[in-house]
Amino acid sequence: MTATPAVIGLSAGNRLLATSFGSAELASPDAYPSRQFAAAAPKLTVVAHRASASASSPANIGGAGHARAHAIRALRNHSAPALAPPPPADPAPELDSKFEFESSLEAIVLLQRSMLEKQWELPFEDDISSTEDEDEDERSTVVVARSGVSARQRRMSGRRRGAVVGRKSVTVSPELMQSRNRIYLRGTVSKDLLTHKQVVQLSRKIKDGIWLQHQRSKLKEKLGNEPSYKQLAQSLRIPAPELRARMRESFLAREMLAMSNTRLVISIAQKYDNLGVELPDLIQGGLIGLLRGIEKFDASRGFRISTYVYWWIRQGVSRALADNSRSFRLPTYLHERLVAIRGAKYALEDQGIAPTVENIAESLNISEKKVHNATEAVHKVISLDQQAFPSLNGLPGDTLHSYIEDQNVANDPWHGFEERYLKEEVNSLINSTLNERERDIIRLYHGIGKQCHTWEDISRQFGLSRERVRQVGLVAMEKLKHAARREHLDALLEEY
């Protein structure tokens, strides 16, 4: 039975254990402590990358046994006591080779078991901690920056980091953000009624935002362009994040007050419904007045905001009604003047005075021309497609277009036909009655098919005097009159 030499290397620290053993056929089942480790031995066997030729040759197996004896004893003492002790050494020279092979196999199995136990007992956190320790060592490595540009950049970045760390963070009030999200989740109308204390706080934030906008406008006039947040913050000597937060809070406070008073706008707009303007347009005008009233509201006077913004909402609805109630929009000042004229008219009638234009102008202290212009602008525009009379059976009836005559002659088709027929008859009469020179003079003077010319212009074209051209024209007209009477066209000729 021949032994198959091999070199086995197992990583144990920084040392490499090398040995040779026989084939698997030489190993008896009793030589292994357990079948589990006997089966695991070939799986964990690693061929050594570095082995000497003397250790791998069969001739040097006996000489290497004494060198490996100390390692085998150390492994045997270090292994678990539960394992079976190795067989006693036989001093007989014929058994030295067999003992050496069995001891080598047993040492390999014990070493493999110890390595497996160490791997099984090693927790996963140890691997992570070791990796983190290596990373920390790499990060803790001190890199000395050179002088020059890199040193200046390092100093400047360190100052900026210190300023950012030492600066107090400025954020928007979470109550405003939370209420804004609630409003948008439910819709545009807020059902939550604000207390007077909340209204006062929101009004102060709005006033602060208006003041910031005023300062921004002043800075814009000074710089000549739109200033940035950084420039505005520097001019006000406040941090830029604080400026952004204050402007954001002002915007949210205005929005919150507007949402909480939207129901008031709807209730006022409903009073002006069915007056020629759609309800959404009236509500839009009321919201514009509401925003204007919120900006003008002064909480220090002690009034409720609903009492103050009521008149602003009413003004916005009235302007929306005035702008959209007519087909042709009238300016707002003209509507206000009409209201004043109507009030003056009623006041004069109550006093028993005739409401003439002179009296109305005198009572309002305006000119009579302004009163005339205002009263002429109130003419109502009616569509011709509107039904002339209400339908009794529900079917569409005749429109106003069927009863109202169009006074524009250009829209009459018979007028166009008569005009074309008249031109054809006149041209035929001129061609059949006059000679070539008379025809040209008549056409140039009366502008038939061309532009009208004077006798002076015609005389230059023909090389004649002005008086001679006029005489030829008068003779030609007398010829046309006699010919028209014969053709019974004298009336058309005179009209033409």
TrEMBL record:
Gene3D superfamilies: RNA Polymerase Primary Sigma Factor, Winged helix-like DNA-binding domain superfamily/Winged helix DNA-binding domain. InterPro entries: RNA_pol_sigma-70_dom, RNA_pol_sigma70, RNA_pol_sigma70_r2, RNA_pol_sigma70_r3, RNA_pol_sigma70_r4, RNA_pol_sigma_r2, RNA_pol_sigma_r3/r4-like, Sigma-70_RNA_pol_init_factors. PROSITE patterns: SIGMA70_1. Coiled coil: none annotated. It holds the Pfam family Sigma70_r3. The keyword Transcription regulation applies. GO terms for cellular component: chloroplast; sigma factor antagonist complex. Keywords: DNA-binding, Sigma factor, Transcription, Transcription regulation. Residues 281-294 form the RNA polymerase sigma-70 domain. GO terms for molecular function: DNA-directed RNA polymerase activity; sigma factor activity; transcription cis-regulatory region binding. GO terms for biological process: DNA-templated transcription initiation; regulation of DNA-templated transcription. Belongs to the sigma-70 factor family. This is Sigma70-like transcription factor. It comes from Zea mays. The lineage of its organism: Eukaryota, Viridiplantae, Streptophyta, Embryophyta, Tracheophyta.
